[in-house]
Design a protein that fits this description.
The structure is a single chain. By secondary structure, this protein is mostly helical. Helices cover 69% and strands 5% of the residues. It has one domain. It is built from eleven helices and four strands; from the N terminus they run ααααααααββαββαα. The N and C termini lie far apart (41 Å).
Length: 302
């Protein structure tokens, strides 16, 4: 199958966003671990992925009810708090990396202020490139926070569960598509937006096209967050030498596997011209790449 230039630009653009999420999330590992910022108290517990999935299901039900009854302000408030808090973690980690000796109160205040300013920019100027910049930061922050909170085995269990859930949610119940369509009009950074032509305006776009020729392609931030969590977990929990002091081989394998599976996913998306479940591809690629990385490094991950 031949790809059009616009499609190649879209595929390459979203691949760049995905790679940026992975790099930034790996950079955030030392400050998050250093300040013991974790989502779960015991990273080794195999119950953590169960809690995560249960919370995800409850959150999805709440969001679908909000969409059904069109309580727009409540949805904006919930998503706004989640985005603002995640951005604060990201800017805190970046500030610690840039100025490790800075006063903690100052770092926290600056991180909070930067998060508020960026969130305000989204509210008043929700163009696709602003949404994408914020989306990369939010996805990186979520990947890093949950990646350092889950050891290898819980992360693998979570990725397997989410791959199955995403398949059911997209192809069987189809509620994930309804959820995506329901939040499109909010113009908030919960997905990457990559236009196929110059002049496209996400701020003025009417909604997501289900089939046919598209003005832009979309990928949910979860499709970047979930597979990246394994790379972060590998870098945080495996006692393996790091290449250039940055990333170990199992984590690098996870990154590479995610990217390879992403290109396979986009081939299917472009060929069929309809939304596809991303996590069955991306989580599988991340896991296979991780295991190959462990094999190459001579490491037993369990």
């Amino acid at each position: 199958m031949k790809f059009k230039i616009g499609e190649l630009v879209v595929i390459g653009g979203i691949a760049l966003f995905l790679l940026l999420v992975q790099v930034i999330s790996l950079l955030l590992v030392p400050p998050l671990v250093g300040y013991d910022l974790r989502a779960f108290g015991n990273p080794e517990s195999v119950w953590n992925p169960i809690y995560y999935v249960v919370f995800l299901l409850l959150f999805t039900v709440v969001m679908l009810v909000i969409i059904k009854y069109k309580v727009r302000w409540l949805m904006q408030a919930i998503m706004g708090v989640a985005i603002l808090s995640t951005l604060t973690y990201v800017f805190f980690g970046i500030a610690v990396l840039v100025a490790p000796s800075a006063d903690l109160v100052v770092v926290t205040a600056v991180s909070g202020l930067a998060s508020i300013l960026l969130a305000a920019l989204i509210v008043f100027y929700p163009e696709w490139y602003v949404v994408d910049v914020v989306g990369v930061l939010v996805a990186a922050g979520a990947s890093a926070l949950f990646g350092v909170s889950l050891a290898i085995m819980p992360t693998l269990i979570l990725l397997a569960l989410l791959a199955v859930y995403d398949y059911i949610a997209v192809y069987r119940t189809k509620h994930m598509i309804r959820l995506a369509e329901g939040v499109m009009d909010l113009k908030i950074p919960i997905m990457f937006v990559m236009p196929r032509r110059w002049g496209y305006s996400f701020a003025r776009a009417g909604g997501m096209q289900k089939e046919g020729e598209k003005e832009a392609y979309f990928m949910g931030l979860g499709d970047a967050v979930m597979p990246t969590m394994l790379a972060v977990s590998a870098n945080a929990f495996l006692d393996v030498p790091r290449l250039l002091g940055f990333i170990n081989v199992p984590a690098l394998g996870s990154v590479a596997g995610t990217l390879v599976s992403y290109f396979a996913l986009m081939y299917v998306v472009v060929k069929l011209k309809k939304p596809q479940a991303g996590l069955p591809f991306l989580c599988t690629g991340s896991i296979v790449g991780f295991l190959l990385g462990c094999l190459a490094a001579g490491v037993r991950p369990f």
